[in-house]
Design goal:
There is one protein chain. By secondary structure, this protein is of the alpha+beta class. It has a domain of 87 residues: SH3 type barrels (Roll). 26% of the residues lie in helices and 22% in strands. It is built from 4 helices and 7 strands, in the order H-H-H-H-E-E-E-E-E-E-E. A 4-stranded antiparallel β-sheet has the order 4-5-6-7, with no helix packed on it. Strands 1-2-3 form a 3-stranded antiparallel β-sheet, with no helix packed on it. The radius of gyration is 32 Å and the shape is elongated.
Amino acid sequence: MLAFAVARSPFTAGLFARKPSPPRAPQPAALQTQAAAPRPDTPQLSTEELADWRRRVAQAWRRDPFFTLEEEQALRALKAAIAPRPTPAPALPPSASLPAYTVRMVLISGASKLAAINGRLVSEGEMLGEERVAEILPNAVILERAGERRKVEIAGGNVPLRVER
């Protein structure tokens, strides 16, 4: 922060003195009534139309101005892909003590490994309920609890995707 100090003198007193603003002239009555009356060329909205207009404006302002429409659609598609979906019943019933997890996506980039499990992004070593994410593989996630390991594969099969820079 930068601050300046000015010594008081007859010269500086006049420079920094606040001058009062001139009084405003009263507005003519004709202008006051004209401003309050609606313009004849302006359409009048019903209460329902006004509520619908406000809802649409609020939705438009939720849009991120830094994304193009195509980027927003791709982001929505990605969010829908990793959102939790109902899983088909397994052939063998799982153990009552272990919850059923659904792996939707695995992302491996160099040393960084992430997985979307039940709509939550996790990395190796994080806890998922009572289980720890022991390892993230290209097509599955290994969960560990009390020394026991289990493998949860990607739901719907593996679709490899390679991004090159």
